[in-house]
Structures are given as structure tokens and as C-alpha cells.
Amino acid sequence: MRAFWELSSCRAFGMSIGPIPWTAVVEYAERKGLDSTMILVFEVVMRELDEAYLTDLRENQRQREAKVNRNREKARG
Q1: How many CB atoms lie within 10 A of CB 42?
Q2: What is the SS3 assignment for 1?
Q3: pLDDT tens digits for 19-43?
Q4: Which end of the chain has fewer CB atoms at under 10 Å, N or C?
């Protein structure tokens, strides 16, 4: 998990949060001394974690936005 959070700092930020770049994942694995087979495994694990993280993040954002909209509607009466 430490690798995931360290790699999360490589994300692009703009209108929304982007995925961890592939180049960052591979560079991290190489710097940690993983062999080519383990690099492939590491890539898959990081992609799965990243997709789950981004999906959860987007769903939480959607729920927050829906709550704000409901509160605005209630305030309007």
C-alpha cells in the first residue's frame, strides 16, 4: 500500500483527478529492483488499486454533489 500512496503523488490534477501514470509505476518498480515478471505483476496490482480508488473517489464526489443539490432545493422551499 505504501507504493500506491507514494505513486499517488504523480497524478495529474485539473478538473478532476487523473490516474497514476504508467511511467511512474514502471519507474518505481525498477527503482525498487523488481525483475521484469514482478514489474508486470506490480503494474496490474497498481492499476487495480488505482481504478478502485478513483471509482470510490468519483462516487463519493457524486454523493456530495447530490447532497448539496438536495440542500439547495430544501432551502428554496
Answers
A1: 18
A2: coil
A3: 999 999 999 999 999 999 999 999 9
A4: C
What stretch of H or E contains 2?
A: helix 2-8
Q: Would you say how long the chain is, in residues?
A: 77
What's the grid cell of residue 7? Answer: 505513486
Q: How far is CA 66 from the centre of its chain?
A: 22
Give how many domains the chain has, as a whole number. 1
6: cell is 507514494
H or E element that contains 70: helix 36-76
Q: What is the DSSP letter of 50?
A: H
Confidence (pTM): 0.81
Q: What is the pLDDT of residue 53?
A: 97
Cell 496490482 belongs to 45
Expressed as residue numbers, the domain containing 20 is 2-76
